[in-house]
């Protein structure tokens, strides 16, 4: 996804399309990983609810982002926008690594000793 940040400095439109394509492919790979996390992190009877809620949050975020993107690009231009896009996936990956913790399958039981 970092290749999208380079779009703001290239002159050739074919190179710009190539960089956007590489960024879009890597973003879709990250989206696939994020979509399958629900099956790994939740119990079998909780997966559908967790994935559905994650999808609803993602769609809401996408709607808000798309509503404001035209105004922001009009104000700041495309160059800073593409540079910001380059860092959004990295920020998301850091958030995933920070917030997702693997739970122990069996709780540790403390036995009383005499």
UniProtKB/TrEMBL annotation:
Lineage: Bacteria, Pseudomonadati, Pseudomonadota, Gammaproteobacteria, Enterobacterales
Keyword Transmembrane helix: yes
Keywords from the UniProt entry: Membrane, Transmembrane, Transmembrane helix
Transmembrane listed as a keyword: yes
Membrane spanning stretches: 14-35, 47-69, 75-100
Species name: Escherichia coli
Signal peptide: none
Name of this chain's protein: Hexuronate transporter
InterPro entries per the UniProt record, alphabetical: MFS_trans_sf
